[in-house]
Design a protein that fits this description.
5 helices; DNA-binding; 8% strand; 104 residues; two-stranded parallel ribbon; globular; mainly alpha
Length: 104
DNA sequence: GGAGTGACACGGA
DNA sequence: GTCCGTGCCACTC
């Protein structure tokens, strides 16, 4: 099969439940490239024109909204997350452990 | 094919 | 908690 790494990432992206977040590292590991978290950001960047993917639910391992500058508005990511019940303080998810989602 | 580029992660100081 | 160096690998010239 010719599934690229990117396809796996996209598939997993769509599974992130509303009101939850996950990290670049978790996605990478689940897609079989444990230490290639950097690629996730690269892939998400290529989706910036496609809002059908919940890119806003991906944060770094500290819960920081490291990708917020890549959205249409500076507050887009934060607004989306807060809209789903996640509290953001200083560009960081409050109580990350409570909101993190880990694939099966 | 070689070098540069990341929306990262980890360990050590 | 911070700052810094290193590993990482798909992708693009």
């Amino acid at each position: 099969l010719n599934n690229s790494f990117k396809d796996n990432v996209l598939e997993l992206l769509l599974k992130i439940p509303e009101g939850k977040v996950t990290t670049y590292g978790i996605i990478a590991e689940k897609c079989g490239l444990k230490s290639s978290a950097r690629q996730i950001g690269y892939i998400l960047n290529s989706l910036k024109n496609d809002m059908s993917y919940p890119c806003h639910r991906v944060v770094n391992r500290l819960g920081i909204l490291s990708g917020k500058s890549h959205f249409p508005d500076a507050d887009y990511m934060q607004n989306m997350l807060e809209n789903e019940g996640i509290k953001i303080e200083d560009d960081k998810v409050v109580n990350l452990k409570q909101h993190i989602w880990i694939p099966d």
